[in-house]
Amino acid sequence: MPAKNSSSVTEFILSGLTDQPGLQIPLFLLFLGFYVVTVVGNLGLITLIGLNSHLHIPMYFFLFNLSFIDFSHSTTLTPKMRMSFVSKKNIISYAGRMTQYFFFCFFVFSESYILSAMAYDRHVAICNPLLYTVTMSPQMCLLLLLGVYGMGVFGAVTHMGNITFMSFCGDNLVNHYMCDLLPLLELSCNSTYINFLVVFIIVTIGIGVPIVTIFISYGFILSSILHISSTEGRSKAFSTCSSHVIVVSLFFGSGAFMYLKPPSSLPLDQGNMSSIFYTAINPLIYSLRNKDVKVALRRTFCRKLVS
Questions:
Q1: What Å distances lie between residue 123 and 217, 230, 238, CA to CA?
Q2: Beta-carbon contacts of residue 222 (< 8 Å; ≥ 6 apart)
Q3: Bridge pairing between strands 90-93 and 11-14
Q4: Is residue 206 part of a domain?
Q5: Helix or strand or coil: residue 4?
Q6: Which tens digit of pLDDT belongs to each residue from 9-37?
Q7: pLDDT, tens digit, for every residue of 117-168?
Q8: Residue 223 burial (CB count, 10 A)
Q9: Domain coverage including residue 77
Q10: Is residue 275 part of a domain?
Q11: Which residues contact 112 (CB under 8 A, 6 or more apart)?
Q12: Going by C-beta distance under 8 Å and a sequence separation of 6 or more, which residues neighbour residue 291?
């Protein structure tokens, strides 16, 4: 549907992940499975942390919020993405596009900063264990959480402001499974240099600041672990951080691959595949690897069986 400017655009067509008919149903079933596991895993974590008092500590306070963010993030994107596999035209309205993109940005920025808050929590727990309860007080945890969601609002509002006054012309086919900013910029009939520059600056803030915080935290953590004399103690410290390191690597790696590059250096089809890591796969990691959560799950089932 051609449009001369943004005010005349009423809908966009999302191209989805593939246009090969033979892959539509297998991909639909694959991502349905991802979404079900993501929902069950994250809602299960939220429920377990709420029901088990021994998990009411800062580490699981942040994990509770990470699960909420991951569940909300996947729910924002995955159901609409699956429609592209079974619909001839996967259409999204202008208002729907703006709403989806706002929540996408909010949860992406919130997740990047909750991961940095979790890195700081692990730093305090390993490097200053005697001061842990004082440093990570309920007031400090609440302050960090306010910062996390505050940066989520900042990222969403600034990105929305970047696209609000864009004009579109020609085709309204978005080369993506969602209304992300980079494929929308390809449809703009304005000069997009400033828009790309704003994207780069905002994403650098959203990725760069948390990455620096995480690297500094893990630098101190590694130094402290190397000073632990017992092999068992070092192994326990490493295992405490392993799930977080995997999630951080996938989340920031896929985000940087998608956004921190020159606009013409990577086809958007490859960017689509990169973004799948932080919209469908990434939320599964903590659900599958966290030992304390598995213990809490067994205890909860045992209590239910006994009752």
A1: 5, 19, 12
A2: none
A3: antiparallel
A4: yes
A5: coil
A6: 567 777 666 667 677 788 788 888 878 87
A7: 999 999 998 888 889 999 999 999 999 999 999 999 999 999 888 877 777 6
A8: 11
A9: 13-260+270-291
A10: yes
A11: 151, 206, 207, 210, 251, 252, 255
A12: 239
